[in-house]
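Hey team,

Filing this mostly as a record. A colleague (T.K.) asked me to run one chain through the structure pipeline before their review meeting, and I want the input and output archived in the tracker in case anyone asks later how it was produced. No errors, nothing strange. Just documentation.

Input sequence:
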Amino acid sequence: MTTPETSEASVASVASVASVASLAATDLAAGEVQVRIADGIATVAFHHPKGNSLPGALLARLAREITAVGNSADARVIVLRSEGSGPFCAGASFRELTAVADAEAGRKFFNGFARVILAMIRAPKFVLARVHGKVAGGGVGLVAASDYSIAVEGASAKLSELALGIGPFVVGPVIERKIGLAAFSAMAVDADWRDAGWCERHGLYSRVFQDSAAMDVALDALAVTLAESNPEAMAKLKQIFWAGTERWDDLLASRALLSGTMVLSEYTRSAIENFRKQ
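Output structure:
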């Protein structure tokens, strides 16, 4: 993080962060995160009217709620889902990205994805992702951070960051770990949709079903089974799954600063604005 050279620069920096915070608060008022725990199954559901996109405040809420249910004695397995019949997640909020005025504000926004990823992989319980529709950008990172993901045939996925003038820097480590370097490189370089079959073959999705009804039957059955399984055994398996990520706090923080700085370029601002108009 850079230190402002003058008091005027300091005031400008604070104003820009406050502007982003105000936009985030507005977006959160339109979106929501709901949590329900029943019979050992914690369901964390998020929604935003802009394709289930993720503004900073919504990311912060997701990280808090996942951490909370991860520490709750009442929850033995976590289901992450989004609402509606459209995309599972459209990734970062374009509205908030275009409001970023300096590197610190950008770092703070992208660090929101890092916090959710870390909350998911460090929860001492399995996180199951229910992917009912298309997923793009940062949303792919959330799916990759789950321990088991179930999707429908229409749940195509893509990493759209390069087309926006940046790169999948923050979500990259967890996606690469899940699907391997070759598949991650292909997604990052060729920012086009991969169908659900491709995602299943490369390990992003654990299972793919024809429709939401079939997916939910399988997801419910698995969640019930896991809720009745040995919590200690599942916690130990979770540690094995994510061994080697102990230093990801620093890694993802540095990647957030990289993204936060790059989003300030005129190229990126123009690319994002063009996407917003589509």
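Quick notes for T.K.: Residues 17 and 71 are 31 Å apart (CA to CA). The chain has one domain: 19-277.
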